[in-house]
Amino acid sequence: MFMQVIQGRVADEPRLRRCMDRWRDELRPGATGYLGSTSGTRPDGTFIALVRFESEEAARRNSERPEQGEWWAETEQCFEGPVTFMDCADATEWLGGGSDDAGFVQVLEGHTTDAPRLRELMIEAGDKLPAVRPEIIGGTFASATDGGYVEAVYYTTESEARAHEHITVPDDLRSLFDEERPLMGEIDYYDLREPMLVSSDR
Fold first, then answer.
1. 3-state secondary structure of 190
2. Which InterPro entries does this chain map to (predicted)?
């Protein structure tokens, strides 16, 4: 699975949402290989989108569509300053992956010195989470060639997520978290309280 991460500071949030809705309704049917996307804006005005495709080639084909270029030319005007793109050629799902049923999504972004090991730990921990964190309903992890990574965690609701933040976890899960922390480095958090969740219509 391939993931593209898009970030920028929003200048016109209502217009951006209209653009995102138009992509869902008008452009998504022709996006061959598109799997889904998760996007939203945190309180400081920073927007992030995680767009999943079957492959890098499918993502490239979508970018080359004339209607996609026209849509982006309009959407780009919703931002203040530059918009950045991070391509992640080896994205992974855990616990079922991204879920359109989520009422709250937390995105973690950082740099790691060992992306393969961090991915292994997150998948292993994700398989054990339902027993202690039933409000977590899925997750994704993706890394770029420079060590940049993003993890998205999908929750039923924010209130349930916060209520379970400080529970005691079993020793086997705690050992995985203890190994994860130094590999994750300094983390930038995106709490998406009104996430836009769009899956393939096929």
1. strand
2. Dimeric_a/b-barrel
Phi (first) and psi of residue 63, to 5 degrees: -65, -30
Helix (H) or strand (E) holding 33: none
**Angle, helices 115-128/171-184, rounded to nearest 10 degrees:** 150
> What's the total number of domains in the chain?
2
Same domain for 84 and 97 = no
Residue 166 pLDDT > 90, yes or no?
Answer: no
77 with 101, same domain?
Answer: no
Contacts of 84 (CB under 8 A, 6+ apart): 6, 7, 8
The residue range of the domain holding 72 is: 2-89+194-199
The number of CA neighbours under 13 Å toward the Cβ of 4 is 17
Q: pLDDT tens digits for 110-159?
A: 999 999 999 999 888 888 888 899 999 999 999 999 999 999 999 999 99
Q: Are 87 and 2 in contact (CB under 8 A)?
A: yes
The two structure tokens encoding residue 24: 């869902």
